[in-house]
């Protein structure tokens, strides 16, 4: 396990291998990884094989790594979602997180061999390489803020929001975007959509910290 934060200034050296098309790089669901490697380290991928794309081409009931681990390695990962949303910037990383990081990649090469064999039998190996190549060509782009986009959330409701509720929704929408950019977090981490809508719709009745936190944690839309 490499500490990408501690070695951040040196990780561009990975391009010697990562941009060598003769060396296969096996990832699972690489779209976000490709964008983060571009954004944070200036690292790019050539010769990518995305096992998630292989699962899609083969028509598996799930494209998740958890499914592939269960299918080929008989390994279950019930805590996967917990670790996916954990704060990986903390140091030192707890042993459980380190173990998850290792397991998340340890079996990928074996899974790759299994998938490649099956793809060879079905004749779809070229399709996976093509789709993986397109994933590898993805570049990070700063998400633009659209001030009127909050109205899209309002239109999804089966009823019309009151003017005050709309004003609250608009302000929360702006605050969430500003905070996410300042803290370098996702908007979903700062304030999930359901919690944002719940706060807006109940803005007239929220009169205590407890009721405010209830809306944020529960995210229940009346």
Automatic annotation (TrEMBL):
Q: Does the keyword Membrane apply?
A: no
Matches recorded under SMART domains: 35EXOc
Q: Where in the cell is it found?
A: Nucleus
InterPro entries noted in UniProt: 3'-5'_exonuclease_dom, HRDC-like_sf, HRDC_dom, HRDC_dom_sf, RNaseH-like_sf, RNaseH_sf, Rrp6-like
User: What molecular function does GO assign, one term?
Assistant: nucleotide binding
The answer to whether the entry has keyword Nucleus is yes
Superkingdom classification of source: Eukaryota
One GO cellular component this record assigns the protein to is: nucleolus
A single GO BP: nuclear polyadenylation-dependent rRNA catabolic process
Output this protein's name.
HRDC domain-containing protein
At the highest ranks, the source species' classification is:
Eukaryota, Rhodophyta, Compsopogonophyceae, Compsopogonales, Compsopogonaceae
